[in-house]
Amino acid sequence: MIPSLMSPASRYLLLALLILWAVLLFGGFIMGRPAGDPPRRMPLWTRMASSAVLVLAAWAWAWVAKDTAAQSLAFWLALGMTFGFLGDLSMAGIIPWPQRVVGGIAMFGIGHVFYMLAMLQFGNQQGLDHPALRWSAWGIWLFISLIGWYVMVFRGQQATALHWAALLYALLLASTTGFATGLALQAPQFTLMAVGAALFLFSDLILAAGLFSGLRFALFDDVVWLTYGPGQMFIVYAVGSALLFLSTAS
Q: In degrees rounded to 5, what are phi and psi of residue 130?
């Protein structure tokens, strides 16, 4: 995930940011005191700080990847993570929008458009664009997302505009997962990126079930973050996978 071919300064910086992210996310869960109903262990500040660290890491990767064939991938992933952070701030109510959930979904949605652009563009440039693998992976994940939305969000309820918006959002996240899976099927270096996108999708389905179906269990919000946070991290650090792929392909 952090190739040895990079300069020592770059490796140490990205490793330090990775450790800081892990301390904030998992340390916040381990050391936090349960509060709220249902109880949550992670304090707000550790959740937001962990996401902010990933933004820093994403732009650090963009700097490291400059003048390489992964430059465009790193830039779009960094832009996507930046909008993901804005989504976190919106969902937490820190950005004072009248509709914090709608605003958060919009920010995450824009971020995923950039993620998909990064994956598709890199795949096209590097010959990782096998039609059967790319589009079959995309279709399978769309189907999985549709089933997940029906079971966890829609089943037993009367359809509203928000339900259909949630479906479109889930299909958008599934598209990111599908294209990441398509890359991984052609280059194993991108396996963790595909895992990260799948974790993001799974986290979103849990969150949507809470918003629309009233799903609640002990440490509900912590479970959302313990799947979402690592998902974002795997996507951001996939730039290292791209650099490793380029080094072995050359």
A: -60, 120
pTM, two decimals, is 0.95
Domain boundaries, the chain: 8-249
Query: Each residue of 150-207: pLDDT tens digit?
Result: 998 888 788 788 888 889 999 999 999 999 999 999 999 999 999 999 999 999 999 9
**pLDDT for residue 115 is more than 90:** yes
Output the 3-class SS for the chain. Answer: CCCCCCCHHHHHHHHHHHHHHHHHHHHHHHHCCCECCCCECCCHHHHHHHHHHHHHHHHHHHHHCCCCCCHHHHHHHHHHHHHHHHHHHHHCCCCCCCCHHHHHHHHHHHHHHHHHHHHHHHHHHCCCCCHHHHHHHHHHHHHHHHHHHHHHHHCCCCCCHHHHHHHHHHHHHHHHHHHHHHHHHHCHHHHHHHHHHHHHHHHHHHHHHHHHHCCCCCCHHHHHHHHHHHHHHHHHCHHHHHHHHHHHHC
